[in-house]
Design brief:
single chain; 415 residues; alpha/beta; Rossmann fold; Alpha-Beta Plaits; 3 domains; six-stranded mixed β-sheet; four-stranded parallel β-sheet; 14 strands; 18% strand; globular
């Protein structure tokens, strides 16, 4: 297996000086105190195009031959790679065609068009990155364009590896743990190559969303394997299959891969905004969201978390808050069958709700031909431990209810 060479990653850094900034590596006091470790954040959310993806895209495109430039480039991306390619197209005067999932947040689509200007055409297709990828490959075969892969390409990996060079320049002494977000695996492969050469004692832990654990699944099986389905919420890291090249490299570079629930990612996004004034996208929050689960292992250690991007769509805020509340055990949904008589709802409010509980959702479907009228009721608590008292009061007052949070199919249909 041919590793990315340190000399090639250093050459990439020289090429990237035209468009990439050396992003800050910042010690975070609040996170350090919370997990009793020394936590540093590599702020790629402050990068040109607000993610590290520009590094790989530009490094690949700057090596294109004049003949390849004439035929243009094509790529598939859920957002951040698209913006890196678009920026590079405009900077290098190359025509680009960019395929993105139809589910991509509008903010990322708009940014892609803004960075590429007249040099790029954006085509929305399919529901996942893999759908867009298939269309981009078809386009490449039909038009002879150069495919700019988001992660499964050595030049891409070398470009992403420059993140590792910067980290080690800013912290030349021992780093105990490096937490790297994983989507397709290009960043982990590039940074892993740098640390294997220059800081081999650092333990590198890959972080994936629980709903899209493609690298973890493949490493456990011993062969790069596509997932049957994924949760697309962490769109910057939700792929059904990691790259073949990153997979082979990460087998050697990673200590392990762990997953983080999407709800925990949402809570982390809100905490970073409210406590640190840091805006991150779901993929950008992955490594910080993993700190609590690693608390015992990293106590007293020096830990670097790569914050990969900040391209978050403000229209997703309501969904992020909802997922956070559900994960934290602060929001609960029920089907409640109210007796069809005057005062039934008033009695529920008076006898069941606690003093700090709040009705956050109410959808009442009254059936005049039946004795009971079902309603979907969402209750928001101030404290997780208040849930038990709520259930006890519902049972004591003989409320006819069905709990929805743990019934995924029914929950998704009704809420």
């Amino acid at each position: 297996m041919k590793y990315p060479q340190l000399k090639d990653i250093k050459a990439a850094r020289e090429k990237l000086k035209e468009v990439v900034i050396h992003t800050p590596l910042m010690k975070n006091k609040n996170l350090s105190e919370r997990v009793a470790a020394e936590i540093w954040l590599k702020r790629e959310d402050l990068q040109t195009v607000r993610s590290y993806k520009i590094r790989g895209a530009f490094n690949k495109m700057v090596y294109l031959s004049p003949e390849a430039i004439k035929k243009g480039v094509v790529c598939a991306s859920a957002g951040n790679h698209a913006q890196g390619v678009a920026y590079s197209c405009h900077y290098l005067d190359i025509k680009g065609t960019i395929f993105m999932p139809a589910t991509t947040p509008r903010q990322k689509v708009k940014q892609t068009k803004m960075f590429g200007k007249s040099h790029v055409e954006v085509i929305l297709t399919g529901d996942t990155f893999d759908d867009s990828f298939a269309e981009a490959v078809k386009f490449q075969h039909e038009n002879g364009s150069t495919f700019i892969h988001p992660f499964d390409d050595m030049k891409i990996i070398e470009g992403q590896g420059t993140v590792g060079l910067e980290i080690l320049e800013d912290i030349p002494d021992r780093i105990d743990f490096l937490l790297v977000p994983i989507g397709g695996g290009g960043l982990a492969a590039g940074v892993g190559a740098v640390f294997k050469a220059l800081s081999p004692d650092t333990k590198i832990i890959g972080i994936e969303p629980a709903g899209a654990p493609a690298m973890k699944f493949s490493l456990e099986k011993g062969v790069n394997t596509a997932l049957e389905s994924i949760d697309k919420f962490v769109d910057g890291a939700a792929v059904m299959k990691v790259g073949d090249l990153p997979y082979e490299l990460c087998k050697d570079f990673l200590e392990e891969v762990i997953t983080v629930p999407e709800g925990k990612v949402c809570s982390t996004i809100l905490d970073l905004y409210n406590e640190e004034a840091i805006i991150v996208e779901p993929a950008g929050a992955l490594t910080i969201a993993a700190l609590d689960s690693l608390k015992d292992r990293i106590k007293g250690k020096k830990v670097v978390c790569i914050v990969s991007g900040s391209n978050n769509d403000i229209t997703r805020t309501a969904e992020i808050k909802e997922r956070s509340l559900l994960y934290e055990g602060l929001k609960h949904y029920f089907i409640v069958r109210f007796p069809q008589r005057a005062g039934a709802l008033r009695e529920f409010l008076r006898n069941v709700l606690g003093p700090d509980d709040d009705i956050a959702h109410f959808e009442y479907n009254k059936k005049t031909s039946r004795e009971n009228g079902p309603a979907v009721v969402g209750i928001e608590l101030q404290r997780k431990e208040d849930f038990e008292g709520l259930i006890q009061r519902m049972k004591a007052t003989k409320i006819n209810y069905q709990y929805l949070n743990d019934q995924e199919n029914l929950f998704q249909f009704l809420v």
